[in-house]
């Protein structure tokens, strides 16, 4: 990220707490939202208004069930983690088929991958399964103990425990490809060698729109962004509409599936109520301010760990300017496969904005790498040293 670009974004953030914009400011406000979205670590741009105006639900943003995007919705108990994890799963059609495992970013949920999962099932003709889940303190995952700790080591241990529970017989487990968005990308990178030590076959690791350098530089701006974020909503439809109108999610269909999982009724015990969200009918399932103590653990060393993985590596970005120096050097040395989904209608949530294109990328990545993993051994592939 250039110093000029960083200074411009900082200046824009400083100007955010203003009077509500008028219609003539729409283009400028859209540009600001896009810029801030580029700095995001999965938290999204702030709303474009500074005052709340309750309104009736807009039927154009009615929620959609994930039931038509996954074949199963399960609650899987992890006693050693004191978690009851919500899992969305479509198994491969044939025995021996592989599974693509998704880990969402901070504040999101497994349903964030719903449209992508359906696209993958179609392009791979159900020969490859898909599995997404809600991390601790997210979505419909619950805990019998305090689940406040969202440090990277805890999230990695949760992830590994889940896969070991879903596939208790490693010898019979399918080949896996790990795909993580933002914070989830960091979890997948760190979990890969642990799972390999347990003899899981990892065909590849794909990281979606997160780069260590950019993410770390963005962290000081996060509180300014969150201060301008709504504390709650009057309806699920309003929450969906806000995400679409601010440009955080460019695909309304995906938003209608994913957003209902990241908010809860105002009286829900899953998230403590605060004075700020009193008066709203719905509040955030995962208040992102409460995750601030763990931000510094999520991204350090991500680039070097990614390049050091003993598996195929894919990095998918919404814009090429997100590459940091370490990854630029690694890309020039051919150490990983890079795809840039730059263009109209694609932002930080690349998997929601254009699931069709990303499904094609992941399917190609899978086909290139799935059969080079021999049980008990990993054959070097393109980019391996």
Automatic annotation (TrEMBL):
Domain of life: Eukaryota
Enzyme class, first EC level, given as a word: hydrolase
This enzyme's EC code(s): 3.1.1.-
Active-site residues from the entry: 182, 209, 348
Coiled coil: none
Catalytic activities: [phosphatase 2A protein]-C-terminal L-leucine methyl ester + H2O = [phosphatase 2A protein]-C-terminal L-leucine + methanol + H(+)
GO MF term (any one): protein methylesterase activity
Compositionally biased intervals (Acidic residues): 22-31
Annotated segments matching region Disordered: 15-64
SUPFAM superfamilies the UniProt entry points to: alpha/beta-Hydrolases
Function: Demethylates proteins that have been reversibly carboxymethylated.
Protein's name in the database: Protein phosphatase methylesterase 1
Biological classification of the source: Eukaryota, Fungi, Dikarya, Basidiomycota, Agaricomycotina
